[in-house]
Design goal:
Blueprint: E1 5-8, E2 18-19, E3 26-29, E4 32-37, H1 40-49, H2 53-68, H3 108-135, H4 141-167, H5 180-187, H6 192-220, H7 224-255, H8 259-271, H9 281-286, H10 291-298
Parallel strand pairs: 1-4
Antiparallel strand pairs: 2-3, 3-4
This protein binds fe (ii) ion (2 copies).
Length: 301
């Protein structure tokens, strides 16, 4: 459990009282313990491992700001550690998807549970973006720039959805949730090509397909504020899937493998073949899918 914030080495004119002897990355500023980082990988790790959602959001925004200002290097001698559990709060309780109750939108709890499920996706998405930055070394500078932007936008999405949930009288952690997103991070931690194929191009892309239907339901229920939040999310998520498509194709080209066939093989191996349900074709085309891939996903190609 880390509750420290991090600061850049020498940032903002802060002078630390002492470096913690056991860990040169920590220093004491007055009463506060802070992590000193000067490279992006340490910043990503620090954000990934923070448990408290407010701290994770605040530090994610700070890290993205420092990255954009050119204050974080890509130099770090320490290789990434094996993937484990990310930082997350004690609640929500994580259960298998089958244990999640089906609820009607027409009760206050059902309405809040739907918004909570979206908040949970966005919280996980912050961790997934930071893990992509932290884990995959030797990628071009633009890869890190893209995934820092994704982390920053996911933090923004989480904040919007959590605020809305609070407005309904509930908070993040009030309902059980499943751990499918992080489980996919664990399954794909060994290879950025597999991660790009299965996280942005399968899981986030599924979000593009289902979001318009959720917006329709919420609009019919009169929750226009939630619809406005989902409009922002849908717009940004097209960009996230496009980033995944770009780096998936980059890695296929680098390795001399055919991207369409590689994607099909990964779907067979990890997703039992195809994606379920109708596709949001225009959003997926904007996010770097080809017509051929969409036909295949729909089972008609
Ligand atoms: Fe998001
Ligand atoms: Fe996303």
């Amino acid at each position: 459990m880390k509750h420290a914030s991090f600061v850049l080495s020498g940032a903002a004119g802060l002078t630390h009282d002492r470096i913690e002897p056991d860990n040169p990355f920590f220093a004491v500023f007055g009463e506060a313990l802070a992590m000193i980082v000067s490279d992006l990988f340490s910043a990503a790790d620090a954000c990934l491992m923070l448990d408290d959602p407010d701290e994770k959001v605040a530090q994610t925004c700070a890290a993205a700001r420092h990255w954009r200002a050119g204050e974080l290097s890509l130099q770090n001698g320490a290789p990434p550690t094996a993937i484990g559990e990310p930082g997350r709060p004690g609640r929500p309780q994580l259960v298998s998807p089958r244990q999640l109750p089906r609820r009607s939108l027409h009760t206050p709890e059902g309405h809040a549970a739907l918004i909570h499920a979206i908040a949970h996706i966005e919280f996980n998405a912050i961790n997934l973006a930071w893990d992509a930055v932290y884990r995959f070394r030797d990628m071009p500078w633009a890869f890190y720039d893209d995934w820092v932007r994704v982390a920053d936008e996911e933090a923004y999405h989480f904040g919007l959805v959590r605020d809305h949930l609070r407005g309904l009288g509930f908070d993040y952690g009030d309902f059980a949730a499943h751990n499918g997103l992080w489980e996919m991070a664990q399954k794909t931690a060994f290879d950025p090509l597999v991660r790009m194929a299965l996280v942005p191009r399968v899981l986030e892309a599924r979000g593009l397909d289902v979001t318009p239907g959720i917006m329709k339901k919420l609009a019919a229920h009169g929750d226009h504020a939630a619809v406005a939040v989902l409009e922002i999310i849908l717009r940004d998520e097209v960009g996230h899937v496009a980033i995944g498509s770009h780096w998936f194709h980059y890695l296929c080209t680098q390795r001399g493998v055919e991207s369409k066939e590689t994607f099909r093989q990964l779907l067979d191996q990890y997703m039992n073949g195809r994606s379920k349900g109708p596709l949001h074709r225009s959003a997926r085309l904007a996010a770097g899918f080809s017509e051929d891939e969409l036909d295949y996903l729909q089972g008609v190609g």
